[in-house]
Design goal:
Elements lengths: L9 H18 L4 E10 L4 H13 L3 E5 L8 H5 L5 E5 L24 H19 L3 E6 L10 H6 L4 E3 L14 E2 L7 E2 L5 E2 L2 H17 L8 E5 L6 H16 L3 E3 L2 H5 L5
Parallel strand pairs: 1-2, 1-9, 1-10, 2-3, 3-4, 4-5, 5-6
Antiparallel strand pairs: 7-8
């Protein structure tokens, strides 16, 4: 009777693969940078408190993308006084204006006049600045990671610092003093309810992006972005994020960038 020898499981493959890739960065004398964005903040909640506590415990800065029109009075005090917490602008009202058109969900598309979209985003920036002050960075984290490229010049002209979507840079034509920094891995898969997508996907998406950056197939200076949705994270996703944050922070060739480093690099 043949004895079956089990190979390494998906978790082992991911952590071994990540360690190997970070060591390759170290051998080349470089640091693999990462950043963390969390979406859909509107109010204080136990999940949001857990997110802030995870950031504090691991020392990993987090960019919390809040929806200006939906913000409840409980949110600003829940995030006040947290040196590793920054605020980004998650559109304006998180409304799908492309509903029924078969092209995914879009708030920031050309389904309305671009001037209308830009006016809403300006109004949202005023709300965010008034509520959060200095921790707010005028950066658009696109709802559903969809934003029409034709909005970029108008955003830059109105003083926004940059934009964040999903995928490898550049997704949009580059503009002077306007930063594009995207995210590349979401621990949740969304079909049939949010659930941890697993280490196999993490190996492909996180380690794959790092490898492409190191080889020059992707832009080497775009930090590898991790996005979470605190209200929807299941326990395996929370555990994975905590392990990832600590693993990267403990490796000499891994580092977490703050949103301010990314979107306002010349700031003190």
């Amino acid at each position: 009777m043949k004895t079956m020898v089990k190979g390494p499981d998906a978790a082992t493959l991911f952590w071994d693969g990540l360690a190997e890739e970070l060591s390759a960065w170290q051998a080349s004398g470089r640091v693999a940078t990462f950043w963390w964005r969390d979406d859909d903040a509107v109010a204080a909640s136990p999940a949001l408190a857990r997110l802030v506590a995870l950031s504090a415990a691991t020392g990993v800065p987090v960019a919390i993308a809040a929806v200006p029109k939906l913000i409840e009075p409980s949110l600003p005090p829940a995030l006040a006084g947290q040196p590793n917490v920054w605020l980004l602008q998650h559109g304006f009202a998180h409304i799908d204006h492309a509903k029924g058109l078969g092209e995914g969900a879009w708030e920031l598309g050309a389904h309305r006049p671009l001037a209308t979209v830009l006016a809403e985003l300006e109004a949202g920036r005023e709300i965010m600045g008034d509520l959060f002050g200095a921790p707010f960075l005028p950066v658009i984290a696109a709802p559903w990671n969809h934003i029409d490229p034709r909005l970029m010049p108008g955003l830059a002209a109105r003083g926004f610092l940059g934009v964040s979507s999903y995928g490898e840079r550049p997704l949009f034509p580059p503009l002077a003093d306007f930063v594009e920094a995207n995210i590349h891995f979401d621990p949740s898969r969304w079909k049939a309810g949010a659930r941890f997508r697993g280490e196999t996907a993490a190996l492909e998406m996180i380690v794959g992006h790092l490898r492409r950056r190191r080889s020059g197939e992707a832009q080497p200076d775009e930090p590898t972005g991790i996005v979470s949705h605190h209200a929807a994270l299941d326990e395996p996703s929370w555990r994975f994020l905590a392990d990832l944050f600590r693993f990267v922070a403990q490796h000499p060739a891994g580092g977490w960038h703050s949103p301010k480093q990314i979107f306002s690099p010349g700031a003190p």
